[in-house]
Amino acid sequence: MGVVSVIKKIAISVVISLLLAAAGLLHYGMITRDVHYLIQCSADEGRGGWRAQRVREMCEFYLYNLRNTDNDVKELSEGAGLDYILNHEAPRKYEIAEFFLANGLDINGINHYGAPNDVTPLQASVLYNDAERVEFLIDQGASLYRKSQTLGQLNALELAKDKHKEGDSREDRSEIIKLLTNASVL
Q1: 142 in the same domain as 92
Q2: What is the pLDDT of residue 177?
Q3: Mean pLDDT across the chain, nearest whole number?
Q4: Does residue 116 have a cis peptide bond before it, meaning omega lies within 30 degrees of 0?
Q5: Confidence category of residue 115, pLDDT binned at 50, 70, 90
Q6: Are 87 and 157 part of one and the same domain?
Q7: Considering 106, 123, 145, which residue would you say is the last residue of a domain?
Q8: Burial code of 70-100, b = ≥16 C-beta within 10 A, e = fewer?
């Protein structure tokens, strides 16, 4: 065995060791991130090139496969809850929300950071005038009849009717009223 052969083996060993160390640091970085970071990173679409795509995929993998879901659900529940996920702009927010709902996140859990502090995600969606979000929450089984003391003891449908202003593009909640009315009939 020649000197060149030994040097090649050492060089290969060094490269492999560096790659393993980088992978270990990356793994450690991901498992120590809070759930909010992983949700944000997983939902983040459309920014950057192939590197950003790989980072998003890695965050998504860790979020769905390598996290202690009970702790993550607890962390979300004690904070902004489902609202944290649904307030993202990315279309993936619904997929991420379904994952956490399937793992025990309360669909009617309030946002402890929001004001008012007794509003469910469905009621918040009515306030935001977000029909797509309302439809998602109805499909996932959100309570249509839960009332908010802060919002004058109104449930989601009553709130939508109260905030509705026909002809005003920002305040027209006719689509939401229709969704909630149809859901309450079922």
Answers
A1: no
A2: 95
A3: 87
A4: yes
A5: low
A6: no
A7: 106
A8: eebbeebbebbbbbbbbbbebebbbebbebb
Cα within 13 Å of Cα(181), Cβ side: 8
pLDDT tens-digit map of 42-75: 887 666 677 778 888 888 888 888 887 899 999 9
Q: CA torsion, points 91, 155, 140, 30, in degrees to nearest 10?
A: 50
Boundary of a domain, candidates 106, 125, 149: 106
3-state secondary structure 39-80: HHHHHCCCCCCHHHHHHHHHHHHHHHHCCCHHHHHHHHHCCC
- 179: which residues sit within 8 A by CB, 6+ positions away? 131, 134, 135, 138
126 and 175 within one domain: yes
Same domain, 115 and 186: yes
Express each pLDDT in 91-113 by its tens digit.
789 999 999 999 999 999 988 88
Domain-located, residue 53 = yes
